[in-house]
């Protein structure tokens, strides 16, 4: 599960007031919920894009801190996909990037940079 911060000065509730509807619009109907760090995340068991097996997404609440977006994309093995499903791979990448950009306000480059900084912060000094 990856967690994403919002852009400075913004909150997840401001960017995505109705997370459940947003997830359904982007990926398909929600089939269940799942507990993650005390927060209920939405599970799309049969996403509309055939490249995805399952998607888990939602807001993770932290006391005293801003909420973060938690997402886990389960993708099918590309060798198991047929020609039509392989064409959907580009749409799957676009859907993931659009979802994350609209929810966090951060593009792929700034998300990568933030992830690098958080890994560097967690690594021990030798």
TrEMBL record:
<feature type="region of interest" description="Disordered">
    <location>
        <begin position="107"/>
        <end position="126"/>
    </location>
</feature>
<feature type="compositionally biased region" description="Basic and acidic residues">
    <location>
        <begin position="107"/>
        <end position="120"/>
    </location>
</feature>
<protein>
    <recommendedName>
        <fullName>DUF5611 domain-containing protein</fullName>
    </recommendedName>
</protein>
<dbReference type="Pfam" id="PF18446">
    <property type="entry name" value="DUF5611"/>
</dbReference>
<feature type="domain" description="DUF5611">
    <location>
        <begin position="1"/>
        <end position="117"/>
    </location>
</feature>
<dbReference type="InterPro" id="IPR040713">
    <property type="entry name" value="DUF5611"/>
</dbReference>
